[in-house]
Amino acid sequence: MFRLSTETPDDTAEVEYLFDLAFAPGREALSSYRLRDGIAPLAALSLVAREQREPEAGGVAGAIRYWPILVGNGAGAKKALLLGPVAVHPTHQGEGLGASLIWDSLARARSAGWKRVILVGDAPYYRRFGFRRAEGLSFPPPTNPNRLLALALVDGGLDGVRGMVRRFDQT
Ligand SMILES: CC(C)(COP(=O)(O)OP(=O)(O)OC[C@H]1O[C@@H](n2cnc3c(N)ncnc32)[C@H](O)[C@@H]1OP(=O)(O)O)[C@@H](O)C(=O)NCCC(=O)NCCS
């Protein structure tokens, strides 16, 4: 059994260790990290999963973070969520934990009023959550457009959402 909770500063070192373990070296060179540099992840949506043990919880078995981003230019720019990184410790992969982290955080995002989520990832995995190829969106290069995926959290949440995905601090 795993317990999901929002990430706190006490979790951060373990979460970073998990991401380093789960991803190829140099993950921070990816273009998606340029959208994150110097911007804090969204604390209300970034979750950690720990094994429930008595008397103390186990280590971090999975984690997910979200960042705010903008899509498009000028007055028409729309706020969106950038999902990721998400990772599950290799000893717990395939147990449904990744899905739990994604479903739980998406529900929190919807409740918080977010309308759309974008990510760069494997479509065969994210399709089950409703993500589809993000038509009309472009992402800072180098990014394979087939890996750029989007999900509307509300009806029409992707309508008219077009253009370049940008850092949230750019106006
Ligand atoms: C991707 C990841 C988060 C999934 O978490 P998980 O807890 O292992 O996944 P779940 O248990 O929820 O789902 C397992 C299912 O997803 C499938 N799956 C896992 N990764 C996949 C991928 N990259 N592409 C397609 N399917 C994938 C598994 O084959 C399994 O399929 P099944 O249900 O038909 O048996 C985890 O494998 C991981 O940390 N991978 C390394 C880091 C990474 O790649 N992160 C995502 C970046 S796109």
Q: Nutshell version of this structure?
A:
The protein has 171 residues and is an alpha+beta fold. The chain has helices spanning 12-22, 31-34, 97-111, 123-126, and strands spanning 2-6, 47-51, 60-71, 78-88, 116-120, 132-133, 137-138, 148-152, 163-167. Strands 1, 2, 3, 4, 5, 6, 7, 8 and 9 form a nine-stranded mixed β-sheet that branches.
List the helices and strands and how they pair.
Elements: E1 2-6, H1 12-22, H2 31-34, E2 47-51, E3 60-71, E4 78-88, H3 97-111, E5 116-120, H4 123-126, E6 132-133, E7 137-138, E8 148-152, E9 163-167
Parallel strand pairs: 4-5, 7-9
Antiparallel strand pairs: 1-2, 2-3, 3-4, 3-9, 5-8, 6-8
Bound molecules: coenzyme A.
Coenzyme A (COA) is lined by residues 22-23, 86-88, 93-99, 121-122, 124-125.
Helical segment count: 4
CATH architecture: 3-Layer(aba) Sandwich
Strand content: 25-35%
Mean pLDDT, all residues: 94
- From the alpha carbons, calculate the radius of gyration and give it in angstroms: 16 Å
Report the strand count.
9
Please describe the biggest sheet, giving its number of strands, its sense, and whether it closes into a barrel: 9 strands, mixed
CA distance, first residue to last residue: 44 Å
Q: What string gives the helices and strands in order?
A: EHHEEEHEHEEEE
CATH superfamily: Gcn5-related N-acetyltransferase (GNAT)
CATH topology: Aminopeptidase
List low-pLDDT spans. Answer: none
Structural class by SSE content: alpha+beta
- Which CATH class applies here? Alpha Beta
- How many domains? The number is 1
Bound heterogens, unique: coenzyme A
**Silhouette:** globular
Proportion of helical residues: 10-25%
